[in-house]
Fold:
Amino acid sequence: MEMEGDPWQRPDGLARQLVLDGLTTVDTDGEVEPALAVEWESENNNHRWRFRLRPGVSFQDGSPLTSVAVVAGLNAACAATCPWTTLHAVGASVVFTSDGPMPNLPALLAGDEFRIALTIASDGSTPRTAIGTGPFQVTSFNNGVLALTAYESCWHGRPFADTIEIRIHRAVHDQWLDLSTGRADVVEVPAADLRTAHQQRLNVVASPPVDLLALEVASSGPLSNANLRASVALAIDRDALANVIFQKEGRATGSLLPQSLTGYGFLFPVTRDMNKAHELRSGLNTPALSMTVDGSGAMQLAAQRIVLNLREAGFNVQIASSASPDLILRKIPITVGEPAAVLERILRNTGSSQPITGDTPSAMYAAEHDFLDRHTLIPLVNLPRAYAISGRVRNFALTEAGSQDLANASVEQAP
Structure:
């Protein structure tokens, strides 16, 4: 396999999905299912949760999965951004408590950011590589190639594939060249290149829209005024991004969650309104703004288009590396599951600790509307994920969330 980015990136890094497990998981219907925890219960109006661990599970180095190890792994995973206040090991269980209710905690724990890695090995040493309980374990990382091998004693069964090699930081052009020459079996196809991939007759596997292209806006500094942030949101031409930059493979959106998940996405406007943008900005001057881009290729092109939009609205924006940028263009994964939990996960992944306590459509809409009205995160386009595979790959599939299901994939032997 080859990829542009880092397989350990959060959230949603491929290596994290293959090596690490969470306490829970979400099935294709969005239902929360047991993983490293076999059962859970809430107390005190969702202020306290107890998760009982699956017995007989071991980390890939042979260390037993204990409640102490789980607590250490979760504390290391989320540090100060945890959705809970305290976490304790109690026998074969872990207990979460919070000052506020946590109705979505089982679904949240299925997120990539809460996958559990071993922090202290059984001999007291600190692991040099990530050690989890998942279907694959790390065997080496040399010259930009991460090698993973099947974990024979995995609690949910040995994967079908023996070995996966992931070549990292490979440009898409180089990935496609390696696919054509037999040096790669699975390569990335960015949404903007889907049409080209089909024209070149690549064997493409694509997901529904599972990533959200969004613009993060700093609420301090030059854009601390809410009217300025609202002006930024109104100045961006979402349709041009979806239709031109992403070649109609993306869908312009004004909501965080897709219409298919909530039924109310159409209520959030996507139309550009330059007159209103100028009106809101009237009399408010800003210094030069900096924008960073989390990605390359079409992401850079999208950023350039947004810069032009904002300059038309009177903002002086430059794309440049900055430790404290005013604007960040990034992709946010949208997982499957209960809408309230998905929304809360998106908010947490963008720095908001706002819990979502209502799960009715009206309560969800109110919570999303209140958050978006701050204009600190501006939804732009929903995007699919896609990969091209070689002719010898069998049983390659994508999950509902766009992740690669590699445990059951295989390759034919060369003749």
